[in-house]
Amino acid sequence: MVSQDSFNPSIIFLKSVVDLAALPKDGKPQVAFVGRSNVGKSSLINHLAGQKALARVSSSAGRTRTINLYQIELKYYLVDMPGYGFAQASKEKQSEFGNLIADYLETTSNVAFVLLVVDAKIGPTDLDQDMVDLLRNAKLPFVMVVNKVDKLSQSELVKLQRTLESDYSHIPHILHSMHEGKDRDHVLGAIHEALLVYRK
Questions:
Q1: Residue 92 contacts by C-beta under 8 Å, 6 or more apart in sequence?
Q2: What is the DSSP letter of 123?
Q3: What is the CATH number of the domain that holds 20?
Q4: Which of 194, 144, 147 is nearest to 31 (CA)?
Q5: Helix or strand or coil: residue 178?
Q6: 6 domain-assigned
Q7: Over the stretch 22-66, which tens digit does the pLDDT of each residue have?
């Protein structure tokens, strides 16, 4: 893993879009964040940016219904996709969000890396496994970021680690907590390494 202890990228909010046609067409790499509703993608982006309010954080699931773009030092983009699996959304909306994510991952040529964010308290779900299958079929490099590990007791953390080792050993993963700075560096390091490979 590349050490990123002194890496503090300049991250700015660029824009929100509702369809793929409005995405940047400058050919710069895109790093996508996908995950179920309310897994903490916005909080993770804020943590990476070292800012508290760059990405809007809501306690209500399903609030992110647009594709939100953040520009990193004019070099690449973070792309925050709508959350999937929001139970209280209509079936039509659930399908719409799901299709949008699938279309993005399968048709956007400059996706360099994907962060699949899951909730440590819940663990990977069947919907997350569907996303793993989609990412593999699209041949996209990705890492599973297990978010909010600070919410777990020690016994729950041990159980989670056993599950990851037994059922998801084939998937690279990072345990992330807002309260542990080293976890921020691990995520940034994974992005940095993926971009190095992408640009070769």
A1: none
A2: -
A3: 3.40.50.300
A4: 194
A5: coil
A6: no
A7: 999 999 999 999 999 889 998 899 999 888 878 876 544 445 578
